[in-house]
Predict the structure.
Amino acid sequence: MRAGLRRAGVDPATVPAMQLYEPGSLFAPRPEPPPPPPDSPVDRMRQKLLRIVECHREQPIDLDQASPMELFALYCFIPDAPGVTYLAAECPI
């Protein structure tokens, strides 16, 4: 519609009906939606572990009530490394 109005010599900014389509209005173009959540099992596991780490960042975990996944997330998982990287005990071969 803007192009048609300009072609006819009308400034689209002067037409009240076109104000609905200005940036920030109800009918303005919307930004791209975020990508869908990862489908990879590794990515899903990583997201679960990151949620556990974030949840217990401020509040210490009760070791009597902790699940194995919580213990792994807090004491073995390395959040800054890609994938599901973890610390392991060094075993002599």
